[in-house]
Amino acid sequence: EATKAGNKVLWLLPASSQQKVAGALWKDARQQLLSSEKALRLGKADPSVLAQAARSLLSVAALSVETAAGDAEAALRALTRLCAGHSEELSSALSDALPVLLWLVDATGATGRCTPKGNMPELTAKILQELGPSSLRPGNPVTVHFLAAALLRVPVEAASSKPTWNLLPVMAELLHKAAESVVTKLEKSAAQLQDALERRSLRAWRGPLRRWLD
Description:
Layout: E1 3-5, E2 8-10, H1 15-35, H2 37-42, H3 47-64, H4 69-93, H5 98-107, H6 120-135, H7 141-152, H8 164-188, H9 193-213
Antiparallel strand pairs: 1-2
């Protein structure tokens, strides 16, 4: 659980402990990428090694945003390059990464809620676009709630600025797909009252969201 420390949001206290963990993960990720450099060039890299490196890079970015912005941006840049050439291999390995991805796009300023941190908003937006679809858990209402909350937190005045303008359709498309999968699941389930209420709520979103996307 994240904790507020002054103006910073930290996952570990004190901040020095968070920096140490991030530093160890960053070192590990770089070693993994260096050891796989030749295999990556030849297109023969071990998918499990790529997945571990990607998870380490994502963790480094999340832990370093508030404590070591340079490391966070470097980790996001490395993850962007990794996704660009190996998105299919990483898709299944990072299928649970959506909450972290949504937190990162918010914390780096990509949603316009805080001051943009260097080039991180553009990098996190690209990563969400690459990995977001594979991070959706079909039929899981929690995914819908995460995405809806992320969209609702975007300030109206930020919607017309980059990279928020490019990010909003991605988030809305993910929300639409997640809501559709939950509705489909609920329609196949037993007609419990709670399911019926949730199904009705999600159905109310579908029309406006689809029209907005079109």
